[in-house]
């Protein structure tokens, strides 16, 4: 597997006054074979970043690198970064059987030591294998997407992504359009596939509880910028940025429901407007420890905070990050990678 890196990536739509910078100077690395969870609210730029990685959004600054090579310079026909979309209803062609949809994504030409599937029999066998890999009966290959449930369709979307033999999979809110009763089984499938195949994965969600369930690292995006990133255990146990702290406090505990997050002050507050991001720290109009409550912190309204290292891999962009300096404080096991609490989580549809 490969490392995916966003190097000072900027995505801007439109021009001048009417323009919108959806992603602004994002630096993020998804190490080979690991899962980076990207969390942020609606409008933070999560999906735009995902789309930029696969060429569906314009990279107007910086670069997206796959093992050091700009993805725009990869050979034509290679699609090493696969994106699984939020909506399984629109991501599959309703006129194609699920077997045809998966077979369409199989490589016809061998490259980089990867197998090619040139004849019909080989494709048929591989489709059956992929269906079983995502927990579906191989006999469903003749079904049309409309005959399947939302959870089954999302499994087909995952199988189709894996069919392309990707180096990196980006999962963009893949459980948020699903019924709560099946979200757990899809999350468990993602975890199993990642471990079994050693996938490099960028897992995007607005729900920190979902992100922490599958991620080795967590990155927090706010109004187009990464405000905190670090190993999941450390970041969740010791969040440095006030926005992350609010997200962590709002996320359910190991003993609560993973998917039903309680109301949080952050969720209640008016989200920032990406068309007119605030000067200085973009979070300052909502910050519970910023200039709204501490007059002396007026620097937050004028100076963009630089990223501060809280430890070797843990960084936050805040003038008043909670603590600076390494710490070897043990992390409670309940904080991250908690078992999925739903009794239905292991039940496939
Ligand atoms: S820089 Fe200031 S406003 Fe921004 S998060 Fe830190 S304390 Fe809050």
From TrEMBL:
Residues 4-248 form the ABC transporter domain. Gene3D superfamilies: P-loop containing nucleotide triphosphate hydrolases. The keyword Hydrolase does not apply. Keywords: ATP-binding, Nucleotide-binding, Transport. Belongs to the ABC transporter superfamily. One of its GO terms (biological process) is peptide transport. This is Dipeptide/oligopeptide/nickel ABC transporter ATP-binding protein. NCBIfam families: oligo_HPY. One of its GO terms (molecular function) is ATP binding. SUPFAM superfamilies: P-loop containing nucleoside triphosphate hydrolases (SSF52540). Residues 257-276 are annotated as: Disordered. SMART domains: AAA. InterPro entries: AAA+_ATPase, ABC_transp_ATP-bind, ABC_transporter-like_ATP-bd, ABC_transporter-like_CS, Oligopep_ABC_C, P-loop_NTPase. It comes from the Bacteria. CDD domains: ABC_NikE_OppD_transporters (cd03257).
